[in-house]
Design goal:
The complex is a heterodimer of chains A (299) and B (535). Chain A is 78% helix and 0% strand. Chain A has 299 residues and is mostly helical. The N and C termini of chain A lie close together (5 Å). In chain A, 40% of the residues are buried. Chain B is α+β, with helices and mostly antiparallel strands and 535 residues long. Chain B is built from 17 helices and 21 strands. Classes of the chains: A mainly alpha (299), B alpha+beta (535). Chains A and B meet through helix 2, helix 3, helix 5, helix 7 and helix 10 of A and helix 1, helix 5, helix 8 and helix 14 of B. Chain A: It comes from Ignisphaera aggregans.
Chain lengths: 299, 535
C-alpha cells in the first residue's frame, strides 16, 4: 500500500510540473504581459520597463522563467504579486480555503439531499416528484440558476449576501442535485435488483434497511463521481463565484489571467493540479477501503 | 464500513451546514439593521440627529464592474483604480464639476504664485497628515512628483512635451511647506495636470522604497485622503475605513466597501435588493427598469469619447477616414444603442472641458461617403474591426458599425479580443485597421495630446506636424485669449483629419438607493463622496 501511495505521489509531482508548464506557456503565448496591464494604454519609459522586467524576471528566456519558478515552488517562496499587494502563497492559500469550504459544503448538501430524495422515492414509491425536481435542476446550468436565485432575492427585496458562502453554496447545490440524484437513483434501483438484496429480503429486513444496504453497496461508485465534481469546484466555480463575488479559486484564475499575473497563475496551476491528483488518490484509497474486492492485485 | 457511521457523519455535516447558513444570513442582516436609520423625519432636530447617528457608523457599499488593477496610485490607469484609490490619495489640486463645467482648485496646496514664465511657487496647506501619522512636507511632494514622472505612464504623459522631454526641470524645496517647480519652458496646463490623481502625493519614504516598481503591500498604501485602505481582495472587494486624522471635512461614512460585480445582472440585483447603496457602470438599457423599481439614477455628461480609431498608416488617405465618418449615423446610434444617454460628438473633447470647441458635425450622408471612397479608390476594401470583449456595449457597437460600413461598400470583419491583448495590439503593435475604444482625459490639453505624433495613447499613429506645433505653442502661450484661439484651431484640424470615427460622449450613469443623499458624480465616472450620507 505504501509503495502504491509513493508511486502516486511521484506521478503527482510530474503532474504539477507538466500542468504549470502548460499553463505558463499558454499564458505567455497570449499577447500582452504584466507590464502591459500595469500601464494600460500608456507606455512606460524604457528604464521603468527595464526595471520592471528585471523585477518580474521577464527579462530572461521563457523556459528559464519556468525553471526559476519550479525552483521557488519547492523552496516555498512563491513571490509577491505586483497587483495584489501580498505574498502569492498567502493569497492562494486564502482563496484555496474558500474554495475548499465551498466544495465540501456543496458536496455535503448535494449528497444529503440526493440521498433524502432517493430514500423518499424508494420508500414512498412516488418517484415522480423527486425526478421532476431532478429534471428542473438539470434544466439549467449552475450560472443560470445563480441568476435566477439572485433575481428572486432582488424581487423579494432581500439583501443578497455578496461575497459570502451562502449564495454560491445554494446555487451549486441546486444545480448539482439533478445529476447526482439521477446517478444515485439509478445505482440504487440497480442494486435493489441484485440477488443479495433478494436474500436480505428473504431474511425479512425492512424496506428502510434494504435501502441502507443498497446505499452501502453503491457508495464506492457514487463517491468517485462526487469527488470528481468536488475537484472541479476547488479548481474554481468560475461563473458562480464571479456572479456572487465569492473570493475563490475561480475568481483568482480569471483575475490572474486577465492581469497576466504570472506568479499567481502558476500558483493556481500548482495547487489545482495537486488537488485534482490528490482527490484521485483519495478516491482510490476510499474505494479500496469501502470495497475490499478492489484491493486485490493492486496492493 | 459502518453504515450507521456514514449516516451519522452526514447528519452532523448537515447540521453544521445549516448552522453556517443561518449564521451567514444573520450577519448579513445585521449590516442592514445598523444602516437603516429612521426615515420619518419631521423636524430639523431629528434630521440632525439621524445625520449624527449615521455619521457614527454608516457603511456605504458601492458596486463596481471591474476590479482595481493596482494598489499603487502612480500605476492607476482604469476607472476603478481612480475611483477606489481616489479616496486614499490626493493631489496638489482637485478637479471639481459644477453647472456643466470642470474646474481645477487648489487642494493640498494653500496658495501658489507664478514667479516668472518657467517657475511656480507653491505653499502647502497646514495640518495635512498622512495615514501613517507623518506631516505632509514639501519633500514628500518632490519625491511623489518625481516618482510619478518616472513610473506612471499617465504622469509621464501629463508632464512631458512633444519631444518626450519632461517639462519639469527641477522641484526645489524652499522649506517644509514651500517648493518651487521649475519648468524647462512655459507650460500652461501645469495646474490642470497637477490635479490628476496620477500625480498624487505619498510619503517620501514610500516613494523611495518603491522607486523602481509598484507598491506591493497594502501596508504601504499611504495617502492624505479621507479614507485608508483596510482590506483588499483582488477581483472581489476593497474595504476602506475613515481616516480620523483627515485635514478636511470629515465624511459621514465610516466604512466604505467596494464590491466587484462584473456581471451586469448582479449589479442590478444588488441595487434593487438594497445589498449595495450605489452602483456604477449602469447600462443605458436598464435605466428605465431601475427607475420603475424605485432606484434613483444620476446622469452626468461624460468625458469618455467613444470612437473607432482608424489606423492612419494603413489608411493614410484623409478622404477615406472622412468617408468613414460620414457613413455612420451618430444620432441613430445615440438614440438606439445608447437610449439617449450620450451626446453626439461635436468635437474631439467633451463639452465639459473649458475651451472645448463645438465643431461642424459629420452629418450622416451615405452617398457622400460612397463618393469620397470612390474618389480615393477605396471601394470594396476589406477591413478588420478590433473590439475588446470587456464591454458588451462595445461589441454591440461593433456590429452596428459593421452594418453602416457595409452600406457604403466596405467589408468589415469584427475581431473580438480579450482586453489586455487588445491594449497590446492597439497601443503597442498598432496591428489593426479599425478599433473601438474610448479615451477619458482629465483636461482639454491632455485630450489633445492623444493625437500628438508618437504619443503613447495615439493608437492610430496619427501624425500631423501642424498639430504637434500648435500643441507646443498652446503650452507656452502666455496670453489667455490667444491660447483659446490656438485651442480652437488645433481641435478643428484633428477633427477634419479624422484619425477616428468620432461617435459620442457617453453619459456617466450611477444608480443609488433612495436613502443615499449628497452624492456627486464627476464626468470621469468618479464619485465624490464628501457629502454622502445614508438616511
Amino acid at each position: 500500500m505504501w509503495l502504491y501511495i509513493l508511486k502516486k505521489l511521484f506521478s503527482l509531482l510530474l503532474i504539477i510540473l507538466a500542468s504549470t508548464a502548460v499553463v505558463y506557456f499558454t499564458a505567455r503565448h497570449f499577447p500582452g504581459d504584466s507590464i502591459t496591464v500595469l500601464y494600460g494604454e500608456t507606455e512606460p519609459s524604457p528604464e521603468a520597463r527595464a526595471a520592471l522586467e528585471a523585477k518580474l524576471g521577464l527579462d530572461k528566456p521563457v523556459y528559464m522563467q519556468l525553471l526559476l519558478f519550479w525552483k521557488r515552488l519547492f523552496t516555498g517562496d512563491w513571490g509577491t504579486s505586483v497587483f495584489a499587494g501580498e505574498p502569492v502563497l498567502n493569497l492562494i492559500l486564502r482563496r484555496y480555503v474558500n474554495s475548499l469550504i465551498l466544495a465540501l459544503t456543496a458536496t455535503a448538501t448535494t449528497t444529503a439531499l440526493c440521498i433524502l430524495l432517493a430514500y423518499i422515492s424508494t420508500m414512498k414509491s412516488f418517484g415522480g416528484a423527486s425526478s421532476a425536481l431532478a429534471t428542473a435542476s438539470t434544466s439549467m446550468p449552475a450560472a443560470l440558476w445563480g441568476v435566477v436565485l439572485m433575481f428572486a432575492l432582488a424581487l423579494l427585496r432581500v439583501p443578497i449576501p455578496f461575497g459570502s458562502l451562502a449564495m454560491p453554496l445554494a446555487t451549486l447545490t441546486i444545480a448539482g442535485i439533478g445529476v447526482f440524484y439521477t446517478v444515485l437513483k439509478n445505482l440504487i434501483d440497480k442494486a435493489l435488483s441484485e440477488p443479495f438484496i433478494g436474500f436480505y429480503k428473504a431474511m425479512g429486513l425492512s424496506k428502510a434497511r434494504l435501502f441502507i444496504k443498497a446505499l452501502h453497496y453503491i457508495t464506492p461508485v457514487y463517491v468517485t463521481a462526487v469527488l470528481y465534481r468536488m475537484g472541479l469546484i476547488v479548481a474554481g466555480a468560475i461563473a458562480t463565484e464571479t456572479l456572487f463575488s465569492y473570493p475563490g479559486m475561480g475568481r483568482l484564475l480569471v483575475e490572474a489571467f486577465s492581469s497576466r499575473d504570472y506568479s499567481v497563475l502558476l500558483g493556481w496551476a500548482t495547487v489545482t493540479s495537486a488537488t485534482l491528483a490528490l482527490l484521485n488518490i483519495l478516491g482510490d484509497l476510499l474505494h479500496a477501503y469501502i470495497d475490499p474486492r478492489t484491493r486485490e492485485g493492486k496492493w | 464500513m459502518n453504515v450507521r457511521g456514514l449516516f451519522l457523519s452526514m447528519l452532523i455535516m448537515a447540521f453544521f451546514l445549516a448552522g453556517f447558513l443561518v449564521g451567514s444570513f444573520l450577519s448579513g442582516r445585521e449590516h442592514t439593521i445598523t444602516r437603516t436609520t429612521p426615515t420619518t423625519i419631521t423636524t430639523r432636530v431629528t434630521e440632525t440627529y439621524t445625520q449624527l447617528a449615521s455619521t457614527q457608523d454608516a457603511v456605504l457599499k458601492v458596486a463596481i464592474p471591474t476590479s482595481i488593477s493596482t494598489i499603487d496610485i502612480h500605476y492607476a490607469t482604469g476607472v476603478a483604480d481612480f475611483e477606489v484609490l481616489g479616496n486614499v490619495y490626493e493631489s496638489l489640486f482637485r478637479i471639481t464639476y459644477s453647472s456643466g463645467r470642470l474646474d481645477y482648485v487648489p487642494w493640498l496646496v494653500k496658495e501658489y504664485v507664478q514667479l516668472n514664465e518657467t517657475a511656480w511657487l507653491f505653499v502647502l496647506r497646514d495640518g495635512v497628515v498622512f495615514h501613517n501619522g507623518d506631516r505632509l512636507s514639501a519633500y514628500d511632494v518632490k519625491a511623489s512628483l518625481e516618482r510619478s514622472m518616472r513610473l506612471s505612464g499617465i504622469g509621464k504623459q501629463l508632464l512631458t512635451d512633444a519631444r518626450g522631454e519632461p517639462v519639469v526641470v527641477d522641484i526645489v524645496v524652499v522649506n517644509d511647506t514651500a517648493f518651487v517647480i521649475r519648468l524647462r519652458e512655459p507650460f500652461a496646463p501645469l495646474i490642470e495636470h497637477l490635479a490628476h490623481l496620477s500625480t498624487a502625493i505619498m510619503p517620501k519614504s514610500i516613494a523611495m522604497k518603491y522607486w523602481n516598481g509598484p507598491v506591493n503591500s497594502t501596508q504601504d498604501v499611504v495617502g492624505t485622503g479621507p479614507f485608508r485602505l483596510e482590506f483588499y481582495e483582488k477581483g472581489s472587494r476593497v474595504e476602506l475605513r475613515r481616516f480620523d486624522g483627515y485635514w478636511g471635512k470629515r465624511p459621514a461614512v465610516k466604512n466604505l466597501v467596494y464590491l466587484v460585480l462584473p456581471d451586469a445582472n448582479a449589479r442590478i440585483s444588488a441595487i434593487i435588493s438594497g445589498s449595495v447603496d450605489i452602483a456604477v457602470g449602469v447600462s443605458p438599457d436598464i435605466v428605465e427598469t431601475l427607475r420603475a423599481q424605485g432606484v434613483e439614477v444620476l446622469r452626468v455628461t461624460g468625458v469618455r469619447l467613444v470612437l473607432v480609431a482608424v489606423n492612419c498608416l494603413r489608411i493614410p488617405d484623409a478622404r477615406v477616414r472622412q468617408a468613414l465618418n460620414y457613413a455612420v449615423d451618430r444620432d441613430a446610434l445615440v438614440k438606439e444603442l445608447m437610449k439617449g444617454y450620450a451626446q453626439v460628438a461635436m468635437g474631439v473633447a467633451s463639452p465639459v472641458f473649458p475651451n472645448a470647441a463645438t465643431l461642424e458635425p459629420y452629418a450622416y450622408n451615405a452617398s457622400k461617403a460612397r463618393d469620397l471612397l470612390e474618389e480615393a479608390g477605396f471601394v470594396g476594401k476589406r477591413l478588420t474591426l478590433l473590439v475588446s470583449t470587456r464591454s458588451p456595449k462595445d461589441v454591440q457597437l461593433a456590429q452596428v458599425i459593421q452594418q453602416y460600413l457595409k452600406a457604403v461598400g466596405l467589408d468589415v470583419e469584427i475581431v473580438q479580443i480579450e482586453h489586455t491583448a487588445f491594449l497590446k495590439k492597439v497601443f503597442r503593435d498598432h496591428d489593426f485597421d479599425l478599433a473601438i475604444y474610448g479615451p477619458s482625459p482629465s483636461s482639454l490639453y491632455y485630450a489633445l495630446t492623444y493625437w500628438r505624433t508618437n504619443a503613447s495613447l495615439n493608437g492610430p499613429q496619427y501624425s500631423n506636424p501642424t498639430v504637434d506645433e500648435l500643441l507646443d505653442r498652446i503650452a507656452s502661450e502666455v496670453s489667455e485669449v490667444r491660447r483659446v484661439e490656438l485651442y480652437r484651431e488645433v481641435q478643428g484640424i484633428i477633427w477634419r483629419d479624422a484619425p477616428a470615427i468620432w461617435l459620442y460622449f457617453e453619459d456617466v450613469l450611477v444608480a443609488t438607493r433612495p436613502g443615499v443623499k449628497g452624492l456627486q458624480v464627476l464626468p470621469f465616472q468618479k464619485l465624490v463622496l464628501d457629502d454622502v450620507h445614508v438616511v
